[in-house]
Each structure stands twice: as C-alpha cells, then as structure tokens.
Amino acid sequence: MGQYYKIIRSILILFKYPLIIIYKIIGPPRILRYGSPINIALLNAFGANVGKKAVICSPVVLYNAKGNFHHLTIENHCNISGNNFLDMTGKITLEKGVSLGPGVIIMTHNNYNYNPFLQERLAHTCGVKDVLIKEGSGIKAGALIIHGITIGKNSVVGGNSVVNRDVPDNCFVAGVPAKLIKEII
Fold first, then answer.
1. SS3 of the chain: helix, strand, coil, percent, to 5
2. pLDDT, mean over the chain
3. In this structure, are residues 90 and 71 in contact, taking their beta carbons and an 8 Å threshold?
4. What is the pLDDT of residues 95-149, one digit of tens each?
5. Domain spans of the chain?
6. Which range in 33-42, 77-86, 112-121 is most confidently predicted, on average pLDDT?
7. What is the pLDDT of residue 8?
8. CB burial class (10 A; 0-12, 13-18, 19+) of residue 159?
9. Which residues 6+ apart lie within 8 Å of 131 measured at CB?
10. Which of 45, 88, 119, 121 makes a 20 to 30 Å CA pair with 68?
11. Domain 2-183 has CATH 1.10.260.40
C-alpha cells in the first residue's frame, strides 16, 4: 500500500507544475478541485500565504478573488474540509491549527445584492470587513461566519451555526444566531 501511495503522489506532483502554468495564462481558479498538494500550490502561486502541513480538501469555492488570492492566509497545520465557500472580498486569516468542517461559509462582505431599500435601512451592516479565526479553533460543518468576525483562540463553533458576533477565547458557541453554550477549560 505504501508503494502505491508513493507512485500516485509522484504522478500528482508531475501534474502540479503544468496546471499552475495553465492557470497563470487563463487566470486563477475560482474552485479548488484537486488534491491537497495541488490546491496548496495553486493558492501559493496566486498570492495566498499557506503554511506547512496544511490540508485543503476539494472543492473550495473562492468567491470574488479578483485575479489573486493575496487576501487569504492559512497558517501551519490548518485543515479545510471540502465544500467550503470563502468570500475573498476582504481578508480571511486562519491561524495555526484551525479546522473548517465541510460546508463552512466565510463571508467578508455584505451588500444585500444591491437592493437600495435594504442597503439604505441596514447601512450599518453593509461593507467589507476582515475575518480572523484564531489559533486552534474549530468551525464545524455548515457554519456561517459573517463579515467582521473574530473567532477566539481554541474556540469551537457548532455545526450549522450562524456567527454574527465575535467569539471569545476558549468557548463553545452554537445556534442561530450563535450563543455561548459553555467555556472550554
């Protein structure tokens, strides 16, 4: 089994460089749909900062990247499961050891699809704001992180939660909207 894995890995590495050259010509991919080493190489090739031993499973939708991924920072030992949606309008920073479960959505902007009625009445909720997920945090399956949110160090966001307020360090939050369930000691 180990020999088979080495052969497959070397074949993937051979495809990585021609794939990067193709995307340099046609522009960066909007959906990462390859194995983790190729996904990481593509992100790094277009300006993202991806640390060592990160795992990025497919697919990952990179919305509104505007030609590069310089708004994305993924530090060492992060794990991004598949079916994630990352809004690249503002900066997204995943510190060391962060894990995103499948189906997580991270938004960095809000504009109510250019609806003037909503934008006028809810102007304080519109705009572009960065998202920071601090070291060791876990975002479980299907969670939605709204723009301008900071998830504290070693915190956990429950599955299918909507995080519309900052989460303190060492906390477990869940629900719609996400509320403090308990502190993690």
1. 25, 30, 45
2. 90
3. yes
4. 999 999 999 999 999 988 878 898 889 888 889 999 999 999 999 999 999 999 9
5. 2-183
6. 77-86
7. 60
8. middle
9. 90, 91, 92, 93, 106, 107, 108, 145, 147, 148, 149, 150
10. 119
11. no
